[in-house]
Write a structure and sequence with these properties.
The protein contains 14 helices and no strands. By secondary structure, it is mainly alpha-helical. The chain has a domain of 239 residues. This is O-acetyltransferase.
Protein backbone atom coordinates (compact mmCIF):
# COMPACT_ATOMS: atom_id res chain seq x y z
CA UNK A 1 0.00 0.00 0.00
CA UNK A 2 1.34 3.41 -0.89
CA UNK A 3 1.98 6.19 1.59
CA UNK A 4 -0.70 8.25 -0.16
CA UNK A 5 -3.34 5.59 0.43
CA UNK A 6 -2.29 5.38 4.06
CA UNK A 7 -2.90 9.11 4.50
CA UNK A 8 -6.40 8.83 3.04
CA UNK A 9 -7.85 6.28 5.38
CA UNK A 10 -6.00 7.49 8.48
CA UNK A 11 -7.21 11.05 7.91
CA UNK A 12 -10.74 9.70 7.47
CA UNK A 13 -10.28 7.87 10.79
CA UNK A 14 -9.17 11.08 12.51
CA UNK A 15 -12.10 12.93 10.96
CA UNK A 16 -14.58 10.39 12.32
CA UNK A 17 -12.86 10.49 15.71
CA UNK A 18 -13.08 14.28 16.04
CA UNK A 19 -16.72 14.18 14.90
CA UNK A 20 -17.44 11.77 17.75
CA UNK A 21 -15.74 14.15 20.20
CA UNK A 22 -17.77 17.19 19.13
CA UNK A 23 -21.00 15.20 18.90
CA UNK A 24 -20.34 13.66 22.31
CA UNK A 25 -19.93 17.13 23.82
CA UNK A 26 -23.16 18.29 22.19
CA UNK A 27 -25.67 15.46 22.57
CA UNK A 28 -27.48 14.85 25.86
CA UNK A 29 -29.47 11.84 24.72
CA UNK A 30 -28.32 9.29 27.28
CA UNK A 31 -27.81 6.16 25.18
CA UNK A 32 -25.89 8.02 22.46
CA UNK A 33 -23.76 9.79 25.05
CA UNK A 34 -22.91 6.57 26.88
CA UNK A 35 -22.03 4.88 23.57
CA UNK A 36 -19.64 7.63 22.41
CA UNK A 37 -17.91 8.06 25.77
CA UNK A 38 -17.32 4.32 25.99
CA UNK A 39 -14.53 4.44 23.39
CA UNK A 40 -13.93 7.85 21.75
CA UNK A 41 -10.94 8.90 23.90
CA UNK A 42 -9.19 5.48 23.81
CA UNK A 43 -9.60 5.70 20.02
CA UNK A 44 -7.65 8.97 19.97
CA UNK A 45 -4.93 7.48 22.16
CA UNK A 46 -4.64 4.41 19.92
CA UNK A 47 -4.27 6.67 16.89
CA UNK A 48 -1.52 8.59 18.70
CA UNK A 49 0.25 5.30 19.44
CA UNK A 50 0.06 4.20 15.81
CA UNK A 51 2.29 7.12 14.88
CA UNK A 52 4.51 7.29 17.94
CA UNK A 53 8.15 6.77 16.96
CA UNK A 54 10.62 6.89 19.83
CA UNK A 55 13.52 6.84 17.37
CA UNK A 56 12.73 10.45 16.38
CA UNK A 57 14.05 11.61 19.74
CA UNK A 58 17.67 11.72 20.80
CA UNK A 59 16.88 11.41 24.50
CA UNK A 60 14.18 12.12 27.07
CA UNK A 61 15.06 15.81 27.13
CA UNK A 62 14.46 15.93 23.39
CA UNK A 63 11.00 14.39 23.94
CA UNK A 64 10.13 17.07 26.49
CA UNK A 65 11.28 19.92 24.24
CA UNK A 66 9.58 18.72 21.06
CA UNK A 67 6.35 17.67 22.72
CA UNK A 68 6.21 20.93 24.67
CA UNK A 69 6.31 22.75 21.33
CA UNK A 70 3.62 20.64 19.65
CA UNK A 71 1.32 20.03 22.65
CA UNK A 72 1.93 22.51 25.47
CA UNK A 73 2.38 25.55 23.24
CA UNK A 74 -1.03 24.96 21.58
CA UNK A 75 -2.47 24.41 25.07
CA UNK A 76 -1.23 27.85 26.16
CA UNK A 77 -2.32 29.53 22.91
CA UNK A 78 -5.81 28.05 22.93
CA UNK A 79 -6.31 28.72 26.62
CA UNK A 80 -5.25 32.36 26.38
CA UNK A 81 -7.63 32.93 23.46
CA UNK A 82 -10.41 31.07 25.26
CA UNK A 83 -9.81 33.07 28.42
CA UNK A 84 -10.04 36.38 26.57
CA UNK A 85 -13.30 35.27 24.93
CA UNK A 86 -14.68 34.17 28.30
CA UNK A 87 -13.60 37.35 30.09
CA UNK A 88 -14.92 39.85 27.58
CA UNK A 89 -17.96 37.98 26.25
CA UNK A 90 -19.16 34.75 27.78
CA UNK A 91 -18.94 35.57 31.49
CA UNK A 92 -21.27 38.49 30.87
CA UNK A 93 -24.00 36.61 29.02
CA UNK A 94 -24.08 33.07 30.40
CA UNK A 95 -25.49 32.39 33.88
CA UNK A 96 -23.04 30.62 36.18
CA UNK A 97 -19.94 31.79 34.32
CA UNK A 98 -19.56 35.11 36.09
CA UNK A 99 -16.56 33.90 38.08
CA UNK A 100 -13.65 35.90 39.53
CA UNK A 101 -11.05 36.64 36.85
CA UNK A 102 -8.46 34.40 38.52
CA UNK A 103 -10.73 31.35 38.70
CA UNK A 104 -10.02 29.95 35.19
CA UNK A 105 -6.33 30.85 35.56
CA UNK A 106 -6.00 28.39 38.43
CA UNK A 107 -7.62 25.71 36.26
CA UNK A 108 -5.17 26.62 33.48
CA UNK A 109 -2.16 26.04 35.73
CA UNK A 110 -3.67 22.82 37.07
CA UNK A 111 -4.40 21.57 33.56
CA UNK A 112 -8.12 20.99 34.14
CA UNK A 113 -11.06 21.87 36.36
CA UNK A 114 -10.26 21.49 40.04
CA UNK A 115 -12.96 22.00 42.63
CA UNK A 116 -14.50 25.46 42.25
CA UNK A 117 -11.94 26.48 39.63
CA UNK A 118 -13.32 26.01 36.14
CA UNK A 119 -11.52 25.78 32.80
CA UNK A 120 -12.71 28.05 29.99
CA UNK A 121 -12.37 25.14 27.57
CA UNK A 122 -13.01 21.65 28.91
CA UNK A 123 -11.43 19.84 25.94
CA UNK A 124 -7.98 21.34 26.41
CA UNK A 125 -7.13 18.81 29.13
CA UNK A 126 -6.30 16.42 26.29
CA UNK A 127 -3.10 18.27 25.34
CA UNK A 128 -1.22 18.22 28.68
CA UNK A 129 -2.52 14.71 29.34
CA UNK A 130 -1.15 13.55 25.98
CA UNK A 131 2.14 15.35 26.69
CA UNK A 132 2.54 13.37 29.91
CA UNK A 133 1.42 10.11 28.28
CA UNK A 134 3.88 10.36 25.38
CA UNK A 135 6.68 11.17 27.81
CA UNK A 136 5.83 8.11 29.92
CA UNK A 137 5.52 5.87 26.86
CA UNK A 138 8.95 6.99 25.64
CA UNK A 139 10.48 5.99 28.99
CA UNK A 140 8.73 2.61 28.88
CA UNK A 141 10.01 1.90 25.39
CA UNK A 142 13.57 2.48 26.62
CA UNK A 143 13.24 -0.79 28.55
CA UNK A 144 13.81 -2.44 25.13
CA UNK A 145 12.35 -5.81 26.20
CA UNK A 146 8.79 -6.24 24.97
CA UNK A 147 7.65 -8.24 27.99
CA UNK A 148 8.79 -5.46 30.35
CA UNK A 149 7.12 -2.83 28.19
CA UNK A 150 3.83 -4.76 28.13
CA UNK A 151 3.99 -5.16 31.91
CA UNK A 152 4.51 -1.41 32.16
CA UNK A 153 1.52 -0.74 29.92
CA UNK A 154 -0.71 -3.03 31.98
CA UNK A 155 0.55 -1.44 35.19
CA UNK A 156 -0.39 1.97 33.77
CA UNK A 157 -3.96 0.75 33.20
CA UNK A 158 -4.06 -0.70 36.73
CA UNK A 159 -3.01 2.70 38.13
CA UNK A 160 -5.83 4.30 36.12
CA UNK A 161 -8.30 1.73 37.49
CA UNK A 162 -7.19 2.49 41.06
CA UNK A 163 -7.63 6.22 40.45
CA UNK A 164 -11.06 5.47 39.00
CA UNK A 165 -11.96 3.63 42.20
CA UNK A 166 -10.78 6.52 44.40
CA UNK A 167 -12.89 8.93 42.30
CA UNK A 168 -12.13 12.08 44.30
CA UNK A 169 -8.40 12.17 43.47
CA UNK A 170 -8.01 14.40 40.40
CA UNK A 171 -4.32 14.73 39.59
CA UNK A 172 -2.85 17.86 37.94
CA UNK A 173 -2.63 17.94 34.16
CA UNK A 174 -5.14 15.06 34.13
CA UNK A 175 -2.43 12.53 34.91
CA UNK A 176 -5.16 9.99 35.60
CA UNK A 177 -6.14 10.25 31.95
CA UNK A 178 -2.45 10.00 31.02
CA UNK A 179 -2.23 6.55 32.62
CA UNK A 180 -5.25 5.49 30.56
CA UNK A 181 -3.62 7.00 27.50
CA UNK A 182 -0.29 5.20 27.98
CA UNK A 183 -2.00 1.81 27.84
CA UNK A 184 -3.97 2.54 24.67
CA UNK A 185 -1.05 4.32 23.02
CA UNK A 186 0.95 1.17 23.66
CA UNK A 187 -1.81 -0.83 21.95
CA UNK A 188 -1.56 1.50 18.97
CA UNK A 189 2.24 1.34 18.99
CA UNK A 190 2.19 -2.46 18.74
CA UNK A 191 -0.73 -2.42 16.30
CA UNK A 192 1.01 -0.58 13.48
CA UNK A 193 0.10 -3.49 11.21
CA UNK A 194 -3.34 -1.88 10.97
CA UNK A 195 -1.74 0.76 8.76
CA UNK A 196 -1.01 -1.83 6.10
CA UNK A 197 -4.37 -3.60 5.88
CA UNK A 198 -5.45 -4.64 2.39
CA UNK A 199 -7.81 -1.93 1.06
CA UNK A 200 -9.12 -3.83 -1.95
CA UNK A 201 -12.81 -3.15 -2.49
CA UNK A 202 -13.90 -6.66 -1.46
CA UNK A 203 -11.95 -6.38 1.78
CA UNK A 204 -13.43 -2.96 2.44
CA UNK A 205 -16.96 -4.39 2.19
CA UNK A 206 -16.01 -7.00 4.78
CA UNK A 207 -14.49 -4.29 7.00
CA UNK A 208 -17.76 -2.35 6.83
CA UNK A 209 -19.87 -5.36 7.84
CA UNK A 210 -17.56 -6.20 10.76
CA UNK A 211 -17.55 -2.54 11.77
CA UNK A 212 -21.34 -2.40 12.01
CA UNK A 213 -21.42 -5.59 14.09
CA UNK A 214 -18.79 -4.23 16.48
CA UNK A 215 -20.64 -0.92 16.82
CA UNK A 216 -23.78 -2.83 17.86
CA UNK A 217 -21.75 -4.83 20.40
CA UNK A 218 -20.18 -1.63 21.72
CA UNK A 219 -23.53 0.10 22.02
CA UNK A 220 -25.10 -2.82 23.91
CA UNK A 221 -22.18 -3.35 26.31
CA UNK A 222 -21.72 0.38 26.92
CA UNK A 223 -25.23 0.68 28.39
CA UNK A 224 -24.03 -1.48 31.31
CA UNK A 225 -21.19 0.93 32.07
CA UNK A 226 -22.50 4.52 31.96
CA UNK A 227 -20.75 7.54 33.44
CA UNK A 228 -17.29 7.07 31.88
CA UNK A 229 -15.12 10.18 32.07
CA UNK A 230 -11.56 9.49 30.90
CA UNK A 231 -10.58 13.06 31.76
CA UNK A 232 -10.54 12.08 35.43
CA UNK A 233 -9.80 8.37 34.89
CA UNK A 234 -13.48 7.69 35.60
CA UNK A 235 -13.70 4.22 34.07
CA UNK A 236 -16.61 2.91 36.18
CA UNK A 237 -16.22 -0.84 35.49
CA UNK A 238 -12.62 -1.06 34.13
CA UNK A 239 -13.20 -4.43 32.44
CA UNK A 240 -16.26 -3.24 30.52
CA UNK A 241 -14.42 -0.01 29.71
CA UNK A 242 -11.55 -1.95 28.12
CA UNK A 243 -14.01 -4.13 26.17
CA UNK A 244 -15.92 -1.18 24.68
CA UNK A 245 -12.69 0.75 24.09
CA UNK A 246 -11.42 -2.07 21.88
CA UNK A 247 -14.67 -2.93 20.12
CA UNK A 248 -15.58 0.72 19.48
CA UNK A 249 -12.08 1.71 18.37
CA UNK A 250 -11.69 -1.27 16.03
CA UNK A 251 -15.17 -0.64 14.61
CA UNK A 252 -14.27 3.00 13.87
CA UNK A 253 -10.98 2.00 12.27
CA UNK A 254 -12.63 -0.58 10.04
CA UNK A 255 -15.30 1.94 9.06
CA UNK A 256 -12.61 4.45 8.09
CA UNK A 257 -10.78 1.81 6.07
CA UNK A 258 -14.05 0.83 4.37
CA UNK A 259 -14.75 4.46 3.46
CA UNK A 260 -11.09 4.88 2.42
CA UNK A 261 -11.46 8.28 0.75
CA UNK A 262 -13.70 11.19 1.74
CA UNK A 263 -12.05 14.58 1.14
CA UNK A 264 -14.15 16.53 3.63
CA UNK A 265 -13.52 14.09 6.47
CA UNK A 266 -9.85 13.94 5.53
CA UNK A 267 -9.61 17.73 5.70
CA UNK A 268 -11.06 17.82 9.20
CA UNK A 269 -8.98 14.80 10.19
CA UNK A 270 -5.79 16.64 9.27
CA UNK A 271 -6.82 19.54 11.49
CA UNK A 272 -8.05 17.90 14.68
CA UNK A 273 -5.76 20.10 16.79
CA UNK A 274 -7.88 23.17 16.06
CA UNK A 275 -11.05 21.35 17.09
CA UNK A 276 -9.46 20.76 20.48
CA UNK A 277 -8.78 24.47 20.69
CA UNK A 278 -11.99 25.98 19.35
CA UNK A 279 -14.85 23.51 18.88
CA UNK A 280 -16.02 23.84 22.49
CA UNK A 281 -16.56 27.64 22.55
CA UNK A 282 -17.97 27.54 19.00
CA UNK A 283 -20.34 24.76 20.04
CA UNK A 284 -21.56 26.82 22.99
CA UNK A 285 -22.30 29.78 20.72
CA UNK A 286 -24.15 27.54 18.24
CA UNK A 287 -26.27 25.99 21.01
CA UNK A 288 -27.02 29.42 22.50
CA UNK A 289 -28.10 30.89 19.16
CA UNK A 290 -30.06 27.76 18.20
CA UNK A 291 -32.10 28.05 21.38
CA UNK A 292 -32.73 31.74 20.66
CA UNK A 293 -34.07 31.21 17.14
CA UNK A 294 -36.01 27.99 17.75
CA UNK A 295 -39.03 27.27 19.97
CA UNK A 296 -37.03 24.56 21.75
CA UNK A 297 -35.01 24.97 24.93
CA UNK A 298 -31.30 24.17 25.14
CA UNK A 299 -32.05 20.86 26.86
CA UNK A 300 -34.65 19.91 24.24
CA UNK A 301 -32.20 20.68 21.44
CA UNK A 302 -29.39 18.70 23.05
CA UNK A 303 -31.64 15.75 23.85
CA UNK A 304 -32.55 15.36 20.17
CA UNK A 305 -30.18 13.37 17.98
CA UNK A 306 -31.21 15.15 14.73
CA UNK A 307 -30.94 18.66 16.26
CA UNK A 308 -27.62 17.78 17.89
CA UNK A 309 -26.28 16.49 14.57
CA UNK A 310 -27.40 19.72 12.91
CA UNK A 311 -25.60 21.84 15.50
CA UNK A 312 -22.45 19.75 15.12
CA UNK A 313 -22.51 20.25 11.35
CA UNK A 314 -22.77 24.01 11.89
CA UNK A 315 -19.79 23.82 14.26
CA UNK A 316 -17.73 22.04 11.61
CA UNK A 317 -18.63 24.68 9.02
CA UNK A 318 -17.60 27.46 11.40
CA UNK A 319 -14.31 25.70 12.06
CA UNK A 320 -13.23 26.07 8.41
CA UNK A 321 -12.18 29.76 8.64
CA UNK A 322 -10.47 29.06 11.98
CA UNK A 323 -8.43 26.27 10.39
CA UNK A 324 -7.54 28.46 7.41
CA UNK A 325 -6.40 31.41 9.52
CA UNK A 326 -4.20 29.31 11.79
CA UNK A 327 -2.65 27.26 9.00
CA UNK A 328 -1.89 30.35 6.93
CA UNK A 329 -1.05 33.06 9.47
CA UNK A 330 -0.78 31.69 13.01
CA UNK A 331 0.97 28.35 12.46
CA UNK A 332 3.80 29.37 14.81
CA UNK A 333 1.34 29.75 17.70
CA UNK A 334 0.65 25.99 17.68
CA UNK A 335 4.24 24.83 17.22
CA UNK A 336 4.33 24.53 13.44
CA UNK A 337 7.53 25.63 11.78
CA UNK A 338 6.15 26.57 8.40
CA UNK A 339 2.93 27.58 6.77
CA UNK A 340 0.87 24.60 5.77
CA UNK A 341 -2.58 25.00 4.26
CA UNK A 342 -4.57 21.77 4.38
CA UNK A 343 -6.49 21.04 1.22
Amino acid sequence: MSATNRIHHIDVLKGIAIFLVVFGHTIRQTESLVFIYSFHMPLFFIISGLFFNEKKFQNFGDVIIKKARTLLLPYVTFYVLGYLYWFFVEKNVRPGLDLPFYNPLVAFLYGSDIGEFKSVNGILWFLPALFAAESILYLLLQLNKRILIIIGLIFSLVVAAVLSYIKTLHLPFCLGASFVAVFFMGVGYYGKGLLTLDLAIKKRIIYFIISMVLFVVTFKVAQYNPGINVKYAGLQNPLLFVVTSFTGSIATMLLAFAVFKMPLLEYFGRNTLYFIGFSEPIKRVVIYLSAKISPLSVEELRSSVPFSLGMVIVCFILMVPVIFIFNKYLFFAVGKRKKKIAV
